Amino acid sequence: MSSFTSRGAAMSFSAWQMPNFGDVPRQNGGDQVDVEKLRQQAYSEGFELGRKDGIESARRDTAGEVQRFVKMADSLSFSTKDVDQQISEDLATLAARIAEQLVQRELSVCGETIYSVVERVIQSLPDHDGHVIVTLCPEDASSLNDHIAEIEQAGWEVREDPSLVRGDCRVEGRDSFIHATLSSQIESIVHNMTEN
Question: pTM of this prediction?
Fold first, then answer.
């Protein structure tokens, strides 16, 4: 089914006309100069706006990079402190091992050194009445033969224990006991040195 419009209904419409904007004065050749000025002005404004946006973007990017660099530098600083601490501990351990080897070598050569070690350990024994039992490895005990007179006069009783190594010394008093191993004595010295 088709529908038809009656002639009377079609008459109620009117044709569209462009509104009147009035008379715009025109200058000969002026249009081209004005357009060029507007284009130059738009270009300058766009350039300035782009420059400002670029500078702000660069500042944001730079600030982010600076933050990242500062964090990285801080982590490196922390890491070097850890490395310094580890190196100090490793050097102290190495020095202790070298010292232990040197002391054991010295002890094997000189009985006087063993006597000095025993005296020092006995002096650190609290409240001893003079009678103490000194236990050493067999090699260290035999090296004290040159000091028999001093040992008997001091009231020391020397015993041998094959489970001890050179430089170890066990001292028993009436109410106290000290087991001074060579390694523990050196560790104590190293600990005191690294704490200071």
Answer: 0.45
